Amino acid sequence: MLVSLDTPYVDTCAADLSLALGGPERPALHVRDLTLPGDIRVRLRLLGASHQVVLTAPAGGDGLTETVACLPGRPPHLPGVLHDEAGGYRFTATVLRPADGELHDRIAALRADLADAPYALVGVFPGDPDAVTALAVRTDAPDGSVGWRTWHAYPQTSELVLTETVVALR
């Protein structure tokens, strides 16, 4: 699902992002609620400066809230890898700095790939077609888990932040 966001683009960069697990749902610009096979519920939330995913496991199982954003009152820190074996959570983040013109090509391909995807949400900020935050639930996650990928494009700094999360369901 491709949506045009009606809010000013927040001038930020990859170094401003933090990862937060738990906590409340933050004000969102757009929300997409999904129900996956096995009654797994995933809420994809586009924030003013990034994303939030809320996972609700079936039958009262463990849920999870993941936020990657510029978080007020919190120093920026986006780990390259966070792996909590006991909790069944794995997160990776990569910051790419594509060459001139390459960011535009990557974002155009991403928009085309995810525009009609049944488990995706792509938000385009006004003023620059490359100012995009995208989320896509993985339908090929390993058995007993759910996963998602995100893309955060910052055209003013020519950065693309890629994240991938896998959560083992119990």
Keywords:
170 residues; 1 helix; 8% helix; 46% strand; globular
Helix content: under 10%
Which percent band covers the strand fraction? over 45%
Query: What number is the mean pLDDT?
Result: 90
Order of helices and strands: EEEEEEEEHEEEE
Specify the oligomeric state: single chain
Number of helices: 1
Number of strands: 12
Major sheet attributes: 7 strands, mixed
Could you say which structural class the secondary elements and strand pairing correspond to?
mainly beta
Distance between the termini: 29 Å
Q: Note the overall shape.
A: globular
How many domains comprise the coordinates?
1
C-alpha Rg, in Å?
A: 15 Å
Give, in spatial order, the strands making up the sheet with the most strands.
1-9-10-11-12-8-7
Note poorly predicted spans: none
Account of the 3D structure:
The chain has one helix spanning 102-114, and strands spanning 2-4, 18-21, 30-36, 40-47, 50-56, 64-69, 81-84, 89-96, 120-124, 132-138, 145-154, 159-168. The chain has 170 residues and is mostly beta strands. It has one domain. The chain is globular and about 45 Å long.
Task: Summarize it.
This protein has about 170 residues and is mostly beta strands.
SSE topology sketch:
Elements: E1 2-4, E2 18-21, E3 30-36, E4 40-47, E5 50-56, E6 64-69, E7 81-84, E8 89-96, H1 102-114, E9 120-124, E10 132-138, E11 145-154, E12 159-168
Parallel strand pairs: 1-9
Antiparallel strand pairs: 2-6, 3-4, 4-5, 5-6, 7-8, 8-12, 9-10, 10-11, 11-12
